[in-house]
UniProtKB/TrEMBL annotation:
InterPro entries in alphabetical order: AAA+_ATPase (IPR003593), ABC_transp_ATP-bind (IPR050319), ABC_transporter-like_ATP-bd (IPR003439), ABC_transporter-like_CS (IPR017871), Oligopep_ABC_C (IPR013563), P-loop_NTPase (IPR027417)
SMART domains xrefs: AAA
Keyword vocabulary terms for this entry: ATP-binding, Nucleotide-binding, Transport
NCBIfam families in the record: oligo_HPY (TIGR01727)
Transmembrane parts of this sequence: none
Record-given protein name: ABC transporter ATP-binding protein
């Protein structure tokens, strides 16, 4: 039996809460998450807007300190001193969804990619490093792009410049927040193929944050589905997306164009992280509970009153659902 590799980056019972205004309850944006990412692995973190996935990504990057739990990178707890974070962010780089907002319109492509090298005091050949990063990102010949400005590039080319700016520091892990959301459909596949190629060529790890389960299917080794601050289902992407067990995952999948049957329309109010309900946090919107299936399975009371608990961060198929566990 092949031993399981330890996680390169892991969240251990991470909580992130923001103070409420005018005496309101704290907003529990991340409410207890275990999640591991191994070397050379792409993990998709999926959920609708407001579920806490971007806040979790920011906590993993050290941009926001957890209010509970912690982050471990390469076997060591993440420290929040300036020097430690600077060293950490050389090894873990962020790729944002909007390349137009990420790139300074006054800077050339060369300066945009070289910025990280200058921040981290790179001592080698800067021009060679920039050229190699642009080439790896698919902008060839790289010298042709050195003096261009963002407005002279297509959306896909701008996103490749952003990726080159991350690659130039030779990171071990990328955190990509909706990396193709702002791109045309014709370009999305090219950027996803680029991320897969970088994983294969450089043994890069990646956390891809997205609301799109179709994107997760095309790029990820493993998927983690997030709802109201918690991971509610996780496992290898093929197993989770071909046989989803959590009603929320089923609802997300049902709206994909190729999904069989009618889309599942979730009732009730969108999740509010300052008012996490008792029991299963999805129960107020759960079609299984509303349709009587949970009652017939004998778990309706548990759905309303008993927290299913925090899933572990390993690669096994797991679900935080009383009804799924009873089947």
């Amino acid at each position: 039996m092949t031993p399981v590799k330890p996680a390169l980056l892991s969240a251990n019972r991470v909580h992130v809460a923001f103070p409420g205004l005018h005496g309101a309850p704290d907003a529990r944006a991340v409410d207890g998450v275990d999640l591991g990412i191994r070397r050379g692995e792409i993990v998709a973190l999926v959920g609708e807007s407001g579920c806490g996935k971007t806040t979790l990504a920011r906590a993993l990057l050290g941009l926001v300190a957890p209010t509970g739990g912690g982050v471990v990178f390469d076997g060591r707890p993440l420290e929040y001193s300036g020097r430690s974070l600077k060293a950490y962010r050389k090894r873990v780089q962020l790729v944002l969804q909007d390349p137009s907002g990420s790139l300074n319109p006054r800077h050339t492509v060369y300066d945009a990619v070289a910025e990280g090298l200058r921040i981290h005091g790179h001592r080698g050949d800067e021009q060679a490093a920039v050229a190699e990063a642009l080439s790896r990102a698919g902008l060839r010949p790289p010298e042709r792009f050195f003096l261009r400005h963002p407005h002279e590039l297509s959306g896909g080319q701008r996103q490749r410049v952003v990726i080159a700016g991350a690659l130039v520091l030779e990171p071990e892990l990328l955190v990509a927040d909706e990396p193709v959301a702002s791109l045309d459909a014709s370009v999305r596949g090219e950027i996803l193929a680029l991320l897969l190629r970088l994983r294969d060529e450089l043994a890069l790890s990646a956390l891809v944050v997205t609301h799109d389960l179709g994107l997760a299917w095309n790029i990820a080794d493993r998927v983690a589905v997030m709802y109201l601050g918690r991971i509610v289902e996780t496992g290898p992407v093929e197993q989770v997306l071909t046989a989803p067990r959590h009603p929320y995952t089923r609802a997300l999948l049902s709206v994909l164009p190729e999904a069989p049957g009618d889309p599942v329309v979730l009732t009730g109010e969108p999740p509010d992280p300052s008012r996490v309900p008792p029991g299963c946090r999805f129960h107020a919107r759960c079609p299984i509970l509303a349709g009587g299936e949970a009652e017939r399975a004998g778990v309706a009371e548990a759905c309303r009153t008993r927290d299913p608990g925090i899933l572990t961060g390993d690669d096994t198929v797991q679900v935080a659902c009383h009804w799924a566990a009873a089947r």
